[in-house]
Amino acid sequence: MNVLFTFRIKDEQMEKLKADFPGIQFCFNKKADEIAIDEFEIIVTYGEDITTDVLERATSLKWLMVASAGVEKMPLAEIAAKGIVISNVRGIHKTPMAETALAHILSLGRALPALVEQQKRKEWNTKVRQTELRGSTALILGPGAIGSEIGRLLQAFGVRTIGCNHSGNPAGFMDDTIRFDGLLSRLPEADIVISVLPSTEKTKGLLTEEHFKAMKETALFMNFGRGDLVKETVIVDALKNGDIGHAVLDVFEKEPLPVESELWTLSNVTISPHVSSHSGKYIERALEFFTENLEKWQNGDKDLVNLIDPEKGY
């Protein structure tokens, strides 16, 4: 059995894999479009390097292990047609992304950006508007692994949490869970609206101008999921018109965010360059998913952790 890693891992991680799986031939740090890949049964990848051309050349490929949560940029139809098993690392981002969300919420609530600006001006001003989290309400779009972890942290601060998903099925650390089609009626309750939704046919353009007008004028809108959830012009208008109080954006319709984007110039938006999931422990956690699944694969068990349905995209 041959395994190809198309991204770099540490030397000690390579050696551990070789020691733990002596019957497997590993090839590390080679790009899929630069080598002959017809011999590899398994490819471990971030996903974006898997093209239709790569799939045509990977004649022995049976399993794609994607060390990312999003797979929307991959040729999923071709993967499905070839019967290739695909799994990802869903849930790997929950700790750093939940901590990032909480950091922004606390920072804005306790007016830390304003205090930093006062310090730059050497200004002593005690009349800074600050709020408490306790008693507020957060509406979380996508209460899966990441959203539930955000909910857990917020509940510890006394926040009421409402989850919103396609099914309306109960989710962890949500006081209530609603369906997408019930979102509009519940938005007026929310002090904080957080999206960690993936990009699917059901989530693209899910939020419209009507949704932002339904939010509180003081609401904090946060998007850590995918930029195609809402058009940039809708967010810009909502911020300029005072439909919401502030936005924290980690993802955008077009990335990198173009320098001419009006978002850069607005005072009530915090721009983050798609880094909410970054962590020094990322590869370590990804390899935990991989080794668990590799043991299953060796034993003929194809019921892998985090299997992806390529037709659904998740």
Automatic annotation (TrEMBL):
Alphabetically sorted, this entry's keywords are: NAD, Oxidoreductase
Residues that span the membrane, as ranges: none
Leader sequence segment: none
Q: Which InterPro entries match?
A: D-isomer_2_OHA_DH_cat_dom (IPR006139), D-isomer_DH_NAD-bd (IPR006140), NAD(P)-bd_dom_sf (IPR036291)
Q: Which residues form the D-isomer specific 2-hydroxyacid dehydrogenase catalytic domain?
A: 4-299
Please name the SUPFAM superfamilies in this protein's record. Formate/glycerate dehydrogenase catalytic domain-like, NAD(P)-binding Rossmann-fold domains
- Return the similarity comment: Belongs to the D-isomer specific 2-hydroxyacid dehydrogenase family.
Q: What is this protein called?
A: D-2-hydroxyacid dehydrogenase
Organism in which the protein naturally occurs: Sporosarcina koreensis
